[in-house]
């Protein structure tokens, strides 16, 4: 399983810098948030308190408030300027809260939330089991965690094209949905459901893709990435390599593997000092 280390401060700085223009370029992220919201059409929930992790400019957060009009909905993100944009767009409700915090250290009392959501955020986390542990801690028994992330085939064309240049990671590595499901089970969540779909964006040239990634703050933030500017000859080699993917319509594809997941907290849960979790068989059956 991939365990990639990110520079957290660098990620925060990148998204702060991208905040003013994020929604203009984040077409894919907006669509993914919409699709995650639509999946809740098939789940019966009446939450009183909802938290959206990695809320950014508040796209999914606003979906949640529109869906659960009586709930207190909180958007949480590490980047203050993204939250500033969220507040500026906050037209749907007056009492929504926007919190600047780290999703690896959630500022909520244990078993105080009814629903935790997250879209296009978890792939920026170095310690995903830690995040799942925190989500487990703050969710009430019988509550739901639903999220999206990106899978290993994301930007596979760009990754392969950069591999023709050097051995450094130029594209972030992404965790397989089966490994994510295993983490959820290990934490104690019941009935994790994982599925995925491929979405392709198209560009006239690869630099358009690179510009979009930078505009939304989603360029490479791995700790072991190459430092310094790439030479003109190396960049031209990458661009030439990407040309092999140009399709019959004359455009270059950029593939995104979108992972959708949701998992329940059992009606009865018991956390042991050792970190192990006891889950009753009866509570597991109840969700099936």
TrEMBL record:
- Top-level taxon in the UniProt lineage: Bacteria
Q: Provide the transmembrane region boundaries.
A: none
- Domain Methyltransferase type as annotated: residue spans: 51-146
Q: Which UniProt keywords apply?
A: Biotin biosynthesis, Methyltransferase, S-adenosyl-L-methionine, Transferase
Q: Which InterPro entries does the UniProt record give? A: BioC, Malonyl-ACP_OMT, Methyltransf_11, SAM-dependent_MTases_sf
The EC class name is: transferase
Transmembrane helix as a keyword of this entry, yes or no, is no
Q: What does this protein do?
A: Converts the free carboxyl group of a malonyl-thioester to its methyl ester by transfer of a methyl group from S-adenosyl-L-methionine (SAM). It allows to synthesize pimeloyl-ACP via the fatty acid synthetic pathway.
Under HAMAP family, the record lists:
BioC
Name under which the protein is recorded: Malonyl-[acyl-carrier protein] O-methyltransferase
């Amino acid at each position: 399983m991939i365990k990639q280390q990110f520079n957290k401060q660098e990620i925060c700085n990148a998204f702060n810098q991208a905040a003013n223009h994020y929604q203009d370029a984040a077409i894919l992220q907006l669509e993914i948030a919409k699709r995650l919201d639509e999946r809740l059409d098939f789940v019966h929930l009446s939450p009183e308190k909802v938290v959206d992790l990695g809320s950014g400019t508040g796209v999914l957060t606003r979906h949640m408030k529109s869906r659960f009009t009586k709930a207190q909905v909180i958007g949480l993100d590490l980047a203050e300027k993204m939250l500033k944009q969220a507040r500026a767009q906050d037209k749907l409700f007056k009492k929504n809260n926007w919190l600047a915090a780290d999703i690896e250290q959630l500022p909520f009392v244990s078993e105080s939330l009814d629903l935790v959501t997250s879209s296009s955020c978890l792939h920026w986390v170095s310690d995903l089991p830690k995040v799942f542990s925190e989500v487990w801690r703050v969710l009430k028994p019988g509550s739901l965690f639903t999220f999206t992330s990106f899978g290993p085939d994301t930007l596979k064309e760009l990754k392969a094209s950069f591999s023709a240049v050097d051995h450094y990671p130029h594209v972030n590595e992404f965790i397989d949905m089966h490994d994510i499901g295993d983490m959820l089970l290990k934490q104690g969540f019941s009935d994790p459901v994982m599925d995925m779909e491929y979405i392709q964006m198209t560009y006239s040239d690869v630099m358009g893709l690179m510009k979009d990634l930078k505009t939304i703050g989603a360029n490479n933030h791995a700790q072991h990435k190459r430092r310094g500017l790439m030479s003109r000859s190396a960049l031209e080699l990458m661009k030439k390599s990407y040309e092999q993917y140009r399709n019959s319509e004359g455009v270059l594809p950029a593939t995104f593997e979108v992972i959708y997941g949701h998992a329940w907290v059992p009606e009865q849960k018991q956390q042991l000092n050792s970190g192990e979790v006891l889950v009753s068989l009866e509570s597991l059956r109840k969700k099936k």
